[in-house]
Amino acid sequence: MDAHLQPFRDPLDENLPLVITGGDGCFVIDDTGKSYLDAAAALWCTSLGFSNERLIAAAERQYRSLPYYHSMMGRTSGRSEELAQVLTARLPGDLNHVFFASSGSEAVDSAIKLAHFYQNGRGNKTKKSIIARDGAYHGSGFLSAAATGFAYCHDGFDVPVGQVIRVTRPHFARFARDGESELAFSQRLADEIDAAIQEAGADNVCAMIGEPALGSGGSIPPPAGYWAAVQAVLRKHDVLLIADEIITGFGRTGEWFGSETYGIEPDLMTMAKQLTGSYFPMSAVAVSDRIVGDMNNFAHELGTLGHGFTYSGHPVGAAIALEALAIYEEMNLPAHVAQRSAWLAERLEAVAARPEVFEVRHVGLMVGVELHPIGDPVPDQVGRAGEAVKDAGLERGVIFRNISDTIAMSPPMIIERHEVDFMIDVLEQSLDAVFC
Hints:
This protein has helices at about 40-45, 55-65, 80-90, 105-120, 145, 170-175, 180-200, 225-235, 260, 290-300, 315-330, 335-350, 385-395, 415-435, and strands at about 20-25, 25-30, 35-40, 95-100, 130-135, 165, 205-210, 240-245, 270, 285, 355-365, 365-370, 400, 400-405, 405-410. By secondary structure, it is α/β, with parallel strands linked by helices.
């Protein structure tokens, strides 16, 4: 039995895991010496690849000057203070305050806790329920796992799913009615949220959490008009909006933040992954001016904001994040992503035309190629096509991520044209191997 209890894997699976021992640019190397282009940037996260010398040097400098200090009880590190200033200057809207944590799951748990805290401070003590979409991933903590719309994060754990109001995933190609436009579909889903709030009672609904574009739910950009319609409903009922930008933050959708891509004005925003290029486990929750005053006044009444982590605002993570942000600025991040997105769009035209492909979804450097199931579309067949294509890609030197029958690609942002071509060439070869 393995000593290492690995997340999201059957612990009694007799197949050996792929052991990665090295990395260079967009490529990783396993313990046999075989090299793979990582088309998923590991977990949507290694935005600057696996060998960025500037991030490594930033970590070393900080380790030598101050390897650790906390941000609790009136103490903090200079690096975390600097990062807070630089980050809030780049965040959209009035998200002018940040709380640091270590992982995306911690950030989501923290955002929901802060939303509850805010509502309690305003005297809205029954506003507790969280609206979340089916097929959305928000983490595997406690509240974050409850918000996640996948049963595998719930089964056997007794997470508080009763606090979650589940609504439809905004996947137009799958769930639109015959003849329904994207705008009409978006309005119907907003009306569903409206009805759910009214059924629960607006006095009982705290916030809605949503990724600007769904990531682990299948790389699904929202249909036209979706976020405008949803935000109108939330404002009507005094329900907060938490934008989960764990995946979409820092260029993944083409703008600095997915909220900018889709015109979202969140009350809170979660970030992680690309904040440090994943060279250090660090996350953040941004809080808007609109709610921070009431939060702080309530904390003052209680004597403290009683939430935090040992590694909140870790100075090494902050130093790496500052360097990553500087690199993104120098890259002119939106223009840089737009160029690579255009390369992808050009190559994906032929993929979309293939008979085994149900739909190609693409925004920025997020791609979902959804396949028709192999054989009859019954539960035991769903996912087989995606698994087979992923395995064929691995044989040919590319790590794809399959989400059921969707092949997800979110390559490092440093990917070059010849690497995009190699990635899509291998995808087409893998489709040929499985379907032809």
